Amino acid sequence: MSKLLGKTAIVTGASKGIGAAIAIELAVAGAEVVVNYSSSKEGADRVVAEIIEKGGKAISVQGNVANSADVKRMFEETKQIFDKVDVLVNNAGIYKFEAVENVTEEEFHLSFNTNVLGSILMIQEALKYFPSSGGSIINISSTASK
């Protein structure tokens, strides 16, 4: 029996890279998966198609994790389709590789809002949807700043 059979997972930033791989592996382990994307619908749809090809269940949901209305909608859509949320993987993140003296105020706020505020908003909303027995939150980080 699959470890995550009967569980529902939301993976942010799952249209490519590590997020896509996480979404696919969660589905292989039996979870129903919400593939979140901010701008790459095509990438998210490819991940969903791969999950379905492998016998899993998945949907893609557009949403900016730094926007509370998008976050709420993401969880509402998940509940509507899969009836629950058991796992949250905070994977969405951005980083512009440049010297710190070149970082603009706008770039800083975009990065902070996605990487920090986004995780906080997602966790706050997940806590409203997790079953009384609890859920799992996995926060992905990067060493890119080193």
Layout of strands and helices, then pairs:
Elements: E1 8-11, H1 17-28, E2 32-37, H2 41-53, E3 57-62, H3 68-82, E4 87-90, H4 105-129, E5 136-139
Parallel strand pairs: 1-2, 1-4, 2-3, 4-5
Describe the protein in words:
The protein has 146 residues and is α/β, with parallel strands linked by helices. Helix content is 45%, strand content 16%. The chain is built from 4 helices and 5 strands. The protein has a 5-stranded parallel beta sheet with strand order 3-2-1-4-5, sandwiched between helices. Helix 1 runs parallel beside helix 2. The protein is globular.
Brief account:
The protein has helices at residues 17-28, 41-53, 68-82, 105-129; strands at 8-11, 32-37, 57-62, 87-90, 136-139. The chain is an alpha/beta fold.
